[in-house]
Amino acid sequence: MTLSERIQESIQHINNQQTFIQELLINCLNWPIPDDIEEIGDISYEWSSEDLRAEGLAKRLVDGSVYQIRTEEAEQKWGIFLLEFKNEDVFIKNRGLTGSLRKVLRGVIKSRAGNPDLPYWDRSNLLFICTDRNYKHYRFAYFKEPEEKQKAAPLSLFGWNLGDSSLHTLCQYNLPALLWTDDPNQAKWHDAFSIEKVTKTFFDEIALLFTDLVGGTRGKGRNIYNGKNLLKLPDKQSDTVRKEFAVRLIGRLIFCWFLKKKTSKADIPLVPDEILSLKAMDKITGIGGYYHSVLEPLFFELLNTPAEERKKEYKKQPWSFIPFLNGGLFTPHEDDFYDLSDIGTSMHINTLKVPDEWIRELFEVFEKYNFTIDENTPVDVEMAIEPEMLGRIFENLLAEINPETGETARKATGSYYTPRPIVEYMVDESLKQYLGNKTGIAELKITELLSYRDQDGSRFTEKQKKSLVEALHSVKIIDPACGSGAFPMGILQKILLILQKLDPDSKIWLRRCLPISLIPCIEKN
């Protein structure tokens, strides 16, 4: 049994502190911890909130303490810390984890202003293990050294929740890198947090399937791969039309896979597993295979059609759970060949073929990886396939259609992708201009407010805080060429960052939003 297989098997049995130590840390990762250890307290030092000079941390952590895990290897260079959170919302709703970790970080690195008698570590040699009091949720976190000293240290993390099924990335890439070795520097531990390796492997697998669908070759020298040329379109379409069709299809399916991770107010996935999954392919049979019987209706009759205008058969569960997105991605393109007969079936069932076997292979790739709908920021990166990956795939596959610029393909698919650094620059410049004009506050102070490095808004007066919150309350953002929504999402992330600094308890914001009659309730609480 491989290490990855052992890790995956052990995770199924981890449900408390003892099994976490025994099954994962000792049995799988070979950490030098005595076999008879049953409690974290037996192998750890306890750091209080006072030791760390971390105000407010005691409210979030069990017993208000952080545990530094000791091993039997005296020479090892890493500081390993365990944080047990009182509230599961830290993991379920992603609230409070990052801020708490940054407080601990400031308390244990060399530059801290705490007790000089306490030990400290380099930022790049710190591993944080986060869980809840019942050991149902797990996150491993690591702060990388920032490329520029004035920037905040980027936080990378991965993990799982009890009962998760998408564990491939975790078991194949992340946890195996934390295997204990004879190297006291444990240099390979840094690889556990390399999102680049995960995303490259994911893209490579998607690219091979793209080549299988449209034909052609991939690779260089002896590693040439010959595609199977599985796609059949009406009237022997050109190579460009075929590739553009394939790019749209893959892009739509990846987008739908993210929708499976997004739930409605009733906690129901926006695209249910009963429609889009390997299991669904085994159960759903229809004329023309899975593409014509499921994917075409999903794209064009549901995601592209308001609920009140849908056909009767799509107003029933589980189809009725799927929302109308009102976006261009699912608008039928001329070269999608979506023409229906009088009885409602495709007129191209025999002339447009996307083999079920190919779709199944694509879904097998999807189901191997952990997808997250949380957009990464420049300082918080989750080790999973996140929405920006959709843009990267578009950009790379479109460039293959027109190697020089990809411009022809972009026009045909309506797809434009803006890299994250450019998005962040546009967001920061827009907010600086807007907030400066609205409040009269100096640009330098607003620039500091937009930085992930500075953790609070203590340099702002109460009057300035109210002025800034008021400006954010009335801001209007428009992105005519919205595309994947990178700019408005980037704006939203920065607005939340600003509000967290200026108004961490949301009192100013609530006073602005709520009726005057309810304001005394805010003051009381």
Description:
This protein is α+β, with helices and mostly antiparallel strands and 525 residues long. 42% of the residues lie in helices and 9% in strands. It has helices at 3-11, 17-28, 49-52, 57-60, 89-92, 97-108, 168-174, 195-214, 239-261, 278-283, 289-302, 356-368, 388-401, 407-413, 420-439, 443-450, 462-474, 486-502, 507-513, 519-524, and strands spanning 44-48, 65-69, 79-85, 126-132, 137-143, 155-161, 217-218, 225-226, 380-382. The strands form two sheets. It has a seven-stranded mixed β-sheet. 31% of the residues are buried.
List keywords for this structure.
525 residues, alpha+beta, two-stranded antiparallel sheet
Question: What's the helix and strand layout?
Answer:
Layout (H helix, E strand, L loop, with lengths): L2 H9 L5 H12 L15 E5 H4 L4 H4 L4 E5 L9 E7 L3 H4 L4 H12 L17 E7 L4 E7 L11 E7 L6 H7 L20 H20 L2 E2 L6 E2 L12 H23 L16 H6 L5 H14 L53 H13 L11 E3 L5 H14 L5 H7 L6 H20 L3 H8 L11 H13 L11 H17 L4 H7 L5 H6 L1
Parallel strand pairs: 3-4, 6-9
Antiparallel strand pairs: 1-2, 2-3, 4-5, 5-6, 7-8
